[in-house]
């Protein structure tokens, strides 16, 4: 992602070298792009596949060492490809569920959260989430006959869903008065548009002449990592003095992922007599699933924790399924939830 000023990977190696660090590795998926003449003296170049080996080597090396890891953010890759700013590989990977034995080696080889569980009559297998796959192809490193690669093909577009003539959507029966600051917590995983919801709410408030303050807590900002956005809305700027939602004062929790919703940073913002919840119950795999093929997601316990923390009128629905059915991409899930909250008079 773009940063202010010029600081290329090559320049980073020279900066580290000038600060006295001598054990420097530059790790990239395209190592041949960094010849020795362009990087600091003594800097070693390695392929991304050797990252674990490099880390283990430097772990045993005394003194200060550094790894310069060069790779475009997965979410940023997807943005650029959609805008035509980056080449979109013509090869796609799918898993034949009839052949898959659910061994989980593809998850171990790729460490990728786009390899998701697929519950079948024959037990848990694997599937590739085509909406989130960034065509890294590292899942192909394992030896598995269930993987099928398609060259030049595109995803089949779903047939239009016949929803009949629903006419004009009715306006919400009521909306928050904003006589006092209205607090909205938005949680989910990185790369799925969580921060976009906060940006849309802030712009909508601006257009209507209302005040808004937004605080994005994106952590490591990694694809699949936890993301939390604090959105505070009010009629007057003077009423919103800080951007952070105080513990137990959220009026609405929009959670695209249940695991993020029950995380301490999120659930402590809720109060059972005050906070409405709009929760997506679609299963999104977490990091432990990559290493443990039979991981128990304990969805029942997660649901109970949320039900106890939120108002009884809260909504627990699989918003991903209608998003994929109507719009063809799970990336629309958060927009579906935003619209639902509006129709319910919560925004």
UniProtKB/TrEMBL annotation:
It comes from the Bacteria. GO terms for molecular function: oxidoreductase activity, acting on the aldehyde or oxo group of donors. SUPFAM superfamilies: Pyruvate-ferredoxin oxidoreductase, PFOR, domain III. InterPro entries: 2-oxoacid:Fd_oxidoreductase, 4Fe4S_Fe-S-bd, Pyrv/ketoisovalerate_OxRed_cat, Pyrv_flavodox_OxRed_cen. The keyword Oxidoreductase applies. Keywords: Oxidoreductase. The keyword Oxidoreductase applies. Residues 91-123 form the 4Fe-4S ferredoxin-type domain. It holds the Pfam family POR. Gene3D superfamilies: Pyruvate-ferredoxin oxidoreductase, PFOR, domain III (3.40.920.10). PANTHER family: 2-OXOGLUTARATE OXIDOREDUCTASE SUBUNIT KORB-RELATED, SUBUNIT OF PYRUVATE:FLAVODOXIN OXIDOREDUCTASE. This is Indolepyruvate ferredoxin oxidoreductase family protein. It comes from Candidatus Afipia apatlaquensis.
């Amino acid at each position: 992602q773009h940063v202010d000023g010029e600081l290329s990977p090559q320049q980073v190696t020279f900066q580290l070298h000038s600060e006295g660090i001598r054990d420097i590795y530059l790790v990239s998926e395209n190592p041949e792009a960094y010849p020795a003449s362009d990087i600091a003296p003594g800097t070693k170049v390695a392929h991304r596949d050797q990252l674990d080996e490099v880390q283990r080597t430097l772990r045993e090396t005394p003194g200060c060492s550094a790894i310069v890891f060069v790779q475009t953010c997965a979410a940023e890759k997807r943005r650029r490809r959609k805008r035509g700013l980056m080449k979109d590989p013509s090869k796609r990977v799918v898993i034949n569920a009839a052949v898959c034995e659910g061994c989980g080696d593809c998850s171990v080889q790729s460490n990728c959260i786009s390899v998701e569980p697929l519950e079948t009559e024959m037990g848990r297998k694997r599937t590739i989430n085509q909406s989130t796959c960034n065509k890294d192809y590292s899942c192909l490193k394992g030896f598995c006959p269930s993987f099928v690669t398609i060259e030049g093909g595109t995803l089949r577009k779903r047939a239009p869903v016949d929803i009949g003539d629903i006419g004009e959507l009715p306006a919400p029966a009521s909306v928050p008065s904003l006589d006092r600051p209205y607090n909205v917590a938005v949680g989910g995983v990185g790369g799925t548009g969580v921060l976009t919801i906060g940006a849309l709410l802030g712009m909508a408030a601006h257009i209507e002449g209302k005040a808004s303050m937004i605080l994005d807590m994106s952590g490591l900002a990694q694809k699949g990592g936890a993301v939390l956005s604090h959105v505070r809305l009010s009629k007057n700027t003077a009423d919103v003095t800080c951007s952070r939602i105080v513990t137990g004062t959220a009026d609405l929790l929009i959670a695209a992922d249940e695991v993020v919703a029950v995380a301490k940073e999120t659930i402590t913002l809720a109060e059972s007599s005050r906070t409405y919840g709009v929760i997506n119950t679609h299963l999104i795999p977490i990091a432990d699933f990559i290493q443990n093929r039979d991981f128990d997601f304990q969805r029942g316990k997660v649901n109970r924790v949320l039900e106890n923390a939120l108002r009884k009128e809260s909504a627990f629905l699989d918003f991903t399924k209608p998003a994929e059915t109507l719009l063809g991409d799970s990336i629309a899930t958060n927009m579906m939830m935003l619209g639902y909250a509006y129709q319910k008079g919560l925004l």
